[in-house]
Amino acid sequence: MEFRQLGKSGLQVPVLCLGTGTFGGGNEFFKTWGSTDVAEARELIDTCMGAGMNFFDTADVYSQGLSEEVLGEAIKHLPREDVLLSTKTTFGFDGRHAGNAEEASSRRPLPNAANSVGSSRLHITRQVDGSLKRLQTDYIDVFHMHAFDALTPMEEVLSTLDTLVRDGKIRYIACSNFSGWHLQRSLDLSEQYGWARYAAHQVYYSLIGRDYEWELMPLAMAEDVGALVWSPLGWGRLTGKIRRGQPPAKGTRLGDGGEAAGPVVDEEYLYSVVDALEKLAGETGNTVPQVALAWLLRKPSVSSVIIGARNKEQLQANLAAAEIVLTPEQVAALDGASERPVPYPYWHQRQFQNRNPLPPAVRS
């Protein structure tokens, strides 16, 4: 398993990371992702460790804390220093109902519900302490702001995270789903005040979702911020189970309605991308999702790709993607099949590539 530096930090992370949103299945939404229990989670984690992949990602809101609880139990048999843990906060969550999503969704709002969401100092510190308990650990290796909170001053967010780093509760900080100016302003403030800076940005990026390339990738390369890619298979559309003229199969996330909130993708565009993936999969002897993951691993600024798995067989298949190295020509073929018009001002800038060069097509 290849390891890469996480942005400008000194932390080395494997190129694949196991996303544990499938752990717990604490409500109907997360049950469509999966309902992995502790014993099943331990088998998946041991499979990852056997492949040299020791990076595991979760969030406080995944199954209302149950994902963190299952993950914490599933790694207890391993030396803590052998494992890299990543979790997040920002979305609405009250730790007093952790692990009981049905109760949390049906109960009356608690008196302090207004402060149980966002990136305030109160909410961050409360949720970090809650995550530490649920994960049964003394520290979190990578802690993310799960989304941007426009109501909380950036100075409050970053100074709070810096204090938690200095206190030893967090090793590295990261953000997720930020716009370009959100990230750049945050980095500037960290430099101005000598605070911990975002080492990584957890982003949506796939062959059918290439918006990351417009502004966030150039920013990541300029500021040395590592990309941690979520939903690399396009919200379940690049699993190889979707074909022209066929509805999503039952037992898949799309077929069960689990990704209904995902971005709309034009069907003809999707089928064209899948056709290109199938062609390349046939040429290389790999599967459609393996090729889709391998394409991401060849892209600049990507530190790690977060994969999911409901069972050991899926996990082993996804882990094999780390061994595939697509040629520049193969990457270019997939680039061409998945290319889409870009919005203003990017289409205007691309008319003058001698002054506004595009990011390289593959990692150097």
What is the secondary structure topology, with strand pairs?
Elements: E1 3-5, E2 12-14, E3 16-19, H1 28-31, H2 38-50, E4 55-57, H3 66-74, E5 84-89, H4 101-106, H5 121-135, E6 140-145, H6 154-166, E7 170-176, H7 180-193, E8 198-204, H8 216-223, E9 226-230, H9 267-284, H10 288-297, E10 302-307, H11 312-319, H12 328-338, H13 346-349
Parallel strand pairs: 3-4, 3-10, 4-5, 5-6, 6-7, 7-8, 8-9, 9-10
Antiparallel strand pairs: 1-2
* Helix fraction bin: 25-40%
For the biggest β-sheet, the strand order reads 3-4-5-6-7-8-9-10
Number of helices: 13
User: pLDDT average, as an integer?
Assistant: 91
Task: Tell me how many strands there are.
Answer: 10
Task: Give the total of domains.
Answer: 1
Quaternary structure of the protein: single chain
Question: What features would you describe in this structure?
Answer:
The protein is of the alpha/beta class. The chain has a single domain, classed as NADP-dependent oxidoreductase domain (TIM Barrel, Alpha-Beta Barrel). Helix content is 37%, strand content 14%. An 8-stranded parallel beta barrel has the order 3-4-5-6-7-8-9-10, surrounded by 6 helices. Strands 1-2 form a two-stranded antiparallel ribbon. Strand 6 (140-145), helix 6 and strand 7 form a beta-alpha-beta unit. The two termini are 18 Å apart. The relative contact order is 0.12.
